[in-house]
Amino acid sequence: MLAELKGLNEECGVFGIWGHPEAAQITYYGLHSLQHRGQEGTGIVVSDGQQLKGRKGEGLVTEIFTADAMEDLQGVGAIGHVRYATAGGGGYENVQPLLFQSQSGGLALAHNGNLVNADALRNQLEAQGSIFQTSSDTEVLAHLIKRGGFSQLRDRVKNALPMLKGAYAFLIMTETEFMVALDPHGLRPLSLGRLGDAYVVASETCAFDIIGAEFVRDILPGELLVIDADGLHSEMYSMNSTTAICTMEYIYFSRPDSNIHGINVHAARKNLGKQLAKEVPIKADVVTGVPDSSISAAIGYAEESGIPYEMGLIKNRYVGRTFIQPSQSLREQGVKMKLSPVRGIVEGKRVIMVDDSIVRGTTSRRIVKMLKEAGATEVHVVISSPPIQNPCFYGIDTSTREELIASEHSVEEIRQLIGADTLTFLSVEGMLEAIGRNDGGETRGQCLACFTGKYPTEIYPQAVPAGQKC
């Protein structure tokens, strides 16, 4: 669904390339393909082999990187970032990549995820004399690297990474080398590709398709890649690696044309819809999905149930970010501006409305009301994921239980609150079966914390807002 309407947002996306004369231009296109992962800020840092130069700003990729701006970014290596602010909040200073200069040279960092022990590390570093320039948890790694005590950068990075807890996919670049690191649980997606003789790395494989790169493989949990003039070198900085990739990447965040660990996102979402139809047989006239991320699941539900899929809701693609507002009243007005029911499709019909998740419930209530006002005789809401009952501390902006309607209300209570005739969520078991991962164990290599409350990492007290318990 529309992230800005629901309040369910990914923190960011990263893209990097090394060994290409048009590194900045390719990074521009890569970031554009990842724009859905963050619309609040973006940046690119390039290396020409002698120095690092960067540009960043608050806004969309096309707004910040004009033709004039791109002319100034020349180099053979680049890392880029699109951001949705969670940890550290907004502000220009927190837009990434972060770029640091010292007597020993430059260092650029781009990060997707959230460090649950960032506050503890920051307090420790400040007590030792560090002065932070941002409120971003990403900056913690820069200070840990600088204090590493080893002569080689890769050794300082290897020494620093095990101190971090939580979700992180890091791109690290100096004038002469490019490093990639994924946390020991692989909570965020990260893939490696080739474009001619150049190596590329991206949060999603859809970025490879845009630039014409060939997918090589997924970055392994606990892996550190170093790319320099001698080629690519891989080593494991953590041997305690157990995959727990965020399930919401399959359900909601990633683009349908991306593949995550060999599974196409669109295919996974269709299977989620098919599984819903098996678990929830409903008598109805039409199936519709909430644009855009729920369309695949709605198609799957329609195929399995035999009930025709129809475009019962239309997304207005010409409403800008001006309407992304935090207040309740403006959020509901935003739904009205961005989604419209198709009266000719839903009037006089029993409608099955497929959505990927319910967070606060306000958007679902508004959409159900719109469908009924357009003449739907019944609205049956089916959700292609289990109830989100627990906060996420790994880079999704649901860090308090008060934000989650399913943490305080039963399914029947939620049904009444949103005004649906019926409401059904997919089971955890059905969700795992539909996605089709099989990495072993009861979680099949997925993080299920927001559904089950079982977190793959330790959660530090500083990561939990006042009054919350994990």
TrEMBL record:
Pathway, per record: Purine metabolism; IMP biosynthesis via de novo pathway; N(1)-(5-phospho-D-ribosyl)glycinamide from 5-phospho-alpha-D-ribose 1-diphosphate: step 1/2
Keywords annotated in UniProt: 4Fe-4S, Glutamine amidotransferase, Glycosyltransferase, Iron, Iron-sulfur, Magnesium, Metal-binding, Purine biosynthesis, Transferase
Protein residues bound to [4Fe-4S] cluster: 246, 392, 447, 450
Enzyme Commission identifier(s): 2.4.2.14
Domain of life where this protein originates: Bacteria
Residue ranges constituting the Glutamine amidotransferase type-2 domain according to the UniProt record: 12-230
Family, as annotated: In the C-terminal section; belongs to the purine/pyrimidine phosphoribosyltransferase family.
Function: Catalyzes the formation of phosphoribosylamine from phosphoribosylpyrophosphate (PRPP) and glutamine.
UniProt name for this protein: Amidophosphoribosyltransferase
Organism: Mesobacillus jeotgali
Name of the encoding gene: purF
